[in-house]
């Protein structure tokens, strides 16, 4: 297996892995790598060229840990991207304590999601989606790189027994 990484071109190409080559008549199959092995909360996709509306997921990776509460905060540059949909959350964390509206997020460049499992929910574990939304570019000619970043100091995840879970984020 050969690993191909385009380095130094932030926001232009994700890390790619070469999956198969057959000669004659070579072909390549590329896949986007998963987040860093130490990451437990991340955006999917983590890297993209934004030309139209794109769905974004906030994913969590907590093997053998049931998550019962999540406070997620992320920021973005409102001059470069905007949310084009309201934020939807995981149905197994059905108690919505706080969720920033699209219009507010697009004015402030910040979104807060506070969700919890109700007694009738099965708290999610393993790899699961916490929330999702779509984004669009602001201005057709804007080609500057930008980031959707977690505000880790303002975030919290709690497991089903009430213990805070350590967060290791990967921004988009």
Task: Give a written overview of the molecule.
4% of the residues lie in helices and 41% in strands. With 172 residues, it is mostly beta strands. The strands form three sheets. Strands 4, 5, 7, 8, 11 and 15 form a six-stranded mixed sheet that branches. Strands 6, 9, 10, 12, 13 and 14 form a six-stranded antiparallel sheet that branches. A hairpin with a 4-residue loop joins strand 13 (156-159) and strand 14 (164-165). The chain starts with a strand and ends with a strand.
Strand content: 35-45%
Q: What is the string of helix and strand elements?
A: EEEEEEEEEHEEEEEE
The number of distinct helices, counting runs of at least 4 residues, comes to 1
Our Rg estimate from Cα atoms comes to 18 Å
């Amino acid at each position: 297996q050969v690993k191909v990484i385009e380095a130094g071109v932030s926001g232009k190409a994700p890390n790619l892995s070469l999956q198969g080559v057959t000669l004659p008549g070579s072909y390549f199959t590329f896949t986007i790598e998963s987040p860093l092995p130490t990451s437990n909360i991340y955006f999917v996709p983590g890297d993209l060229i934004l030309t139209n509306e794109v769905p974004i997921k906030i994913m969590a990776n907590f093997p053998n840990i049931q998550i019962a509460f999540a406070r997620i905060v992320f920021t973005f540059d409102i001059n470069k991207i905007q949310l084009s949909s309201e934020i939807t959350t995981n149905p197994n964390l059905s108690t919505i304590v706080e969720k920033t509206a699209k219009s507010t997020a697009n004015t402030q460049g910040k979104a807060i999601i506070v969700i919890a499992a109700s007694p009738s929910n099965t708290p999610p574990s393993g790899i699961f989606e916490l929330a999702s939304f779509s984004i669009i570019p602001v201005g057709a000619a804007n080609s500057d790189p930008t980031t959707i970043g977690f505000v880790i100091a303002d975030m919290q995840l709690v497991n089903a027994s009430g213990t805070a879970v350590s967060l290791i984020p990967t921004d988009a």
